[in-house]
Amino acid sequence: MTNCYLLGCKKTNQAIIIDPGYDSKRIIKEITKLNLIPQSIILTHAHGDHIGAVPDLVKRYNIPVYIHPHDQELLSDSMLNLTAILLSKGVLITSSRKLKDQDKIKAGTLEIEVIHTPGHTRGGISLKCQNVIFSGDTLFQGSIGRTDLPGGSHQQLLTSIKDRLLVFPDDTIIYPGHGPTTNLGQERENNPFLT
């Protein structure tokens, strides 16, 4: 039930894997079908439903994993990242590279900008590429991320959305960590958490 995204450059086929949930076989099959060349994995945050396939993909493609430093601790503790609860075995990721606000990652001709959007977790990030934002568990269609897990803050999440995401135009497309695609105009008008 987690949205994993493959963001690929049409000219070079270089790609970034965003939030690879559980099904590494399905992700690898899609990468092969699209003839993509993975360059890195970017995690919008370190909860188990967004990281379960990371070990298999790192092993398969020998690529780095990027995350905000405030979520680094969660990656190396299967209780904190919830994989000990959500999966039949815990996932520990000990090697990752740190991303900070406004960092830029490239895949071919594509450039992805990091937007620190804490609230769901302390190190939650959104990723902007052209007129698209991958919002992780920050903003959903008609809803927002939960804030009752360690590191969550309802007020901080609302501030992140209003000050970091809603500054972009209405036609900015939102690809969330769960559920259907939306856009900022629709969320400004209809999201009950933002009115």
Query: Mean pLDDT score, rounded?
Result: 94
* 3D shape: globular
Which CATH top level class fits?
Alpha Beta
Estimated helix fraction = 25-40%
What is the beta-strand fraction? 25-35%
Notes on the protein architecture:
The chain has helices at residues 24-33, 48-51, 54-61, 72-75, 83-86, 154-165, 184-190; strands at residues 5-8, 14-18, 37-42, 65-67, 97-98, 104-107, 110-116, 125-129, 132-136, 139-140, 143-144, 173-176, 182-183. With 195 residues, it is α/β, with parallel strands linked by helices. It has one domain: Ribonuclease Z/Hydroxyacylglutathione hydrolase-like (Metallo-beta-lactamase, Chain A). The strands form 3 sheets. It has a 6-stranded mixed beta sheet. A hairpin with a 2-residue loop joins strand 10 (139-140) and strand 11. The longest helix has 12 residues, at 154-165. The protein is globular, with a radius of gyration of 16 Å. It starts with a strand and ends in a 5-residue tail after the last helix. 44% of the residues are buried.
Essential attributes:
six-stranded mixed sheet; about 200 residues; five-stranded mixed sheet; Metallo-beta-lactamase, Chain A; alpha/beta
